[in-house]
Amino acid sequence: MTGQLADSLSFRRIEGIPFGAYMAVLESWQLTGDDGELRLGDSLVRGPVEHDDFFGTWRIEVRLARGRLRPPVRMRLEIAPWYAGATVLDLIPCQRVRPSAAYFAAGDRLLDSLTRMRPVPTPVRQRPDQEHLRAGVPALSRA
C-alpha cells in the first residue's frame, strides 16, 4: 500500500486530553480486560500497549469490525502527545482495505468510542495546614 493511499485510509483524532491522563485510562482497561482485550462495539482493541522510543508513540493492535459478513481489518492504533494538553490518535490499516462506507463508518465509531474514554478528574487534596484556602478564610501572618 503506497503512503498516500494508506494516509487516505487512516483515521486521525486530536483530543483535548493530556497524554499522560489518556494513557492512564488505556492502561487501566488493559488491567481489567479479558486477556488484555477491550471490546468496543464489535471491534477489538488488543494489548499489550507497545512503546516506540524512536517516535515517542504508543501502539496497540486493533481488529476493526466492518459488519457481520466481512472479516475484521487488522489495524494499528498509534497514540502520541500532540502538545501539553492534547493527545493524537491515528488508526492505520495494516492490510489491504477496500474503501467502503462500512469501513469509514466503523473507523469513526471506533475512534468515537476511544475518545469517550475520558479520564475522570479527581479533586486536588490540600494539606491540613492549607485548610484556610478551601474555606475562603484569609491566611494568618506568620510574622
List descriptors.
disordered C terminus, alpha+beta, single chain, TATA-Binding Protein, 143 residues
Number of strands: 6
For the largest beta sheet, what order do the strands appear in spatially? 1-6-5-4-3-2
* Overall radius of gyration: 20 Å
Shape from CA axes? globular
Rounded average pLDDT: 76
- Domain module count: 1
What is the element layout, followed by pairings?
Layout: H1 3-8, E1 11-15, H2 19-32, E2 37-40, E3 43-52, E4 57-64, E5 73-83, E6 86-93, H3 101-115, H4 131-135
Antiparallel strand pairs: 1-6, 2-3, 3-4, 4-5, 5-6
Q: What would you note in describing this structure?
A:
It is a single chain. This protein has a single domain (3-118), classed as TATA-Binding Protein (2-Layer Sandwich), CATH 3.30.310. The radius of gyration is 20 Å and the shape is globular. It contains four helices and six strands. The chain is an alpha+beta fold and 143 residues long. A hairpin with a 2-residue loop joins strand 5 (73-83) and strand 6. It has a six-stranded antiparallel beta sheet with strand order 1-6-5-4-3-2. The termini are far apart. It has helices spanning 3-8, 19-32, 101-115, 131-135, and strands at 11-15, 37-40, 43-52, 57-64, 73-83, 86-93.
